[in-house]
Fold this protein.
Amino acid sequence: MKRNSRLSAVLHALLHMAERDRPMTSEELATCLHTNPVVVRRTMAGLRETGLVTSVRGHGGGWTLARALEDVSMRDIYAALGEPMLFQMGNVSESPGCLVEQAVNHALDDAFRDAEAMLIARLGEVTLATLADDFKRRFAEHRATLKQLG
Amino acid sequence: MKRNSRLSAVLHALLHMAERDRPMTSEELATCLHTNPVVVRRTMAGLRETGLVTSVRGHGGGWTLARALEDVSMRDIYAALGEPMLFQMGNVSESPGCLVEQAVNHALDDAFRDAEAMLIARLGEVTLATLADDFKRRFAEHRATLKQLG
DNA sequence: TTTTCATGTAATAATAATAGTTACGAATAG
DNA sequence: CTATTCGTAACTATTATTATTACATGAAAA
Ligand code: FES
Ligand code: FES
């Protein structure tokens, strides 16, 4: 299967939106993300329901970030996307009759559950503000490099 | 995409093999795992290369566990399977030119890398012997329940 | 009011990864 | 020599994500 890249894509989009004082259309976002406007709408729909963004139809409409950068963590966004499955690996059957399989499932589930909890906690520690700051740092570095070269 | 269930399947197979004093054929294993003999061979191929199991062709041949139950961890098996991708989620692009995307990738990669390290460490703590013991406990419990019922 | 712009959404196709099948070659025991 | 069993390549099926097409709905602008 293809890998799910919605979280990655949506973070990119939100940071873009944060830098602008007027709404961004799905068309504009799609160009940035190298994808299709309909895909943008579909993905942002979840964020709208959670109140992370607002959308306006018609002339001058588009998408706007509805909360402060410091108030939105990657975990919030993961949740708004519907908490998609994190792991590619899974059990053959979730409720097997065979006792061997039950023992195997239990051991694997244990490990995966803990890893998931840790990962989600980590996502909660990073806000859009953190990412915006990191971007600014990278941008300054980038300019310094360019200056140095000529 | 479909989820990868090879680790789960192979653990089931190995525990089965451990209980037997002669080789198990791919056919027999496939019946246990509700799958196809060719799938069994393909999956076991990696374990053979790592020396976890041996295979013998022809009459009376089949698959044999080559190491003690205490000496094989779930991590060893994960490695023998070729360390398949653990996460379903990934970045849109692994080496983006855009600096925003770089910042996003870095934050996500960080979180995922740590979760992966933790998960793999956890897999290393559980051996086939652990699983076999857990199975025996479950089996005893199962028999007790049956006895109680009549 | 009509036109234009933009989202909302359903339906369908494309893409990609895993799993299952078929077919046949190679080795080994009897 | 024959029956059995692994080894492997090629092809199909299944499933999840992503992309595309088409059209309805709502809102600003002409
Ligand atoms: S393309 Fe617009 S910020 Fe990455
Ligand atoms: S079917 Fe054989 S142990 Fe599960």
Remarks:
- Residues 1-6, 35-36, 38-39, 42, 56-61 of chain B lie near DNA strand C (CB under 10 Å from a C1').
- Helices of chain B lie at 6-18, 26-33, 37-49, 74-80, 99-125, 128-149.
- Chain B is about 60% helix and 5% strand.
- The first helix of chain B runs from residue 6 to 18.
